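Entry type: protein chain
Record version: 2
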Amino acid sequence: MPEWLEIVVVDEADADAACRELEDADVLLHVLTPVTGAVLKAAPKLRLVQKIGVGTNTIDVEVARSLGIAVANMPGTNSQAVAEHTLALMLAALRRVGYLDSTCRRGIGWSLPPDTFDSVSELSGRTVGFVGYGSIPRRLTAALVALGSRVVYYARSAAPDDAAQRLPSLQTLLEQADIVSLHIPLTEDTRGLLNSRAFGEMKRGAVLINTARGELVDERALLDALKSGTIAAAGLDVFATEPATADNPLLSRPNVVATPHVAWLTPQTLERSIGVIVENCRRLRDGEPLMNRV
């Protein structure tokens, strides 16, 4: 870090320490703990909330704007990490890696019923459908095509990518895709986008992957779909309530592969993020326009 930049790390559970540090802070580095209007009003010198990541749904942007506090994010810094994690969840869900890992550890891996493997699948020959087609799906398309998948997507605008086919509606994508992967922001329009009706429109035995935001999915409807076999499996890095707790019924399902919202978290992502932090702090200091201001 440059000598002119002082960074103080506070445990997110230590509210008193956070309040003390916010009294003099110019910049708040934000990951997941909500930045509410009350938090912003308790920081009289704050000039910038720098999101380490992309989604700003956990920041009260309107209050920040009213207080003259800038909000910026980091599109692209975590794209490679999330793309690789998404692919890992696809493979883990299709091949039942979580379940097979647990049976192997219990010493019963060679004693499973033969029909256990009737429910596994390869990526080759499958149709992968992306809901949203930003940098993460675009990075994945070439790899998926190379593995023998057909790639389709539904997004508001077409992308210059001949390897993936844009479909006219979300319903069309749900009807065609063997694997549905979510890559859209959380808004009032997208909250609960995948509900019981949407699961009913999906191909029976399809797989859901979510590395975007947990609230995009109606978890009760997903649980019902997993129990009934409408959905064969799910790979989830995000949940409606985070951190996910042991009593979340999705975590008890053998056909769910789960990770604790860490798709983005690699040393390489952090290195790229630090670069953005330093540059935006320099720009704030020197009165220059900020990178990726929301």
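Comment: Strands lie at 27-30, 48-51, 70-72, 127-131, 150-154, 164-166, 179-182, 206-210, 231-236, 256-258.
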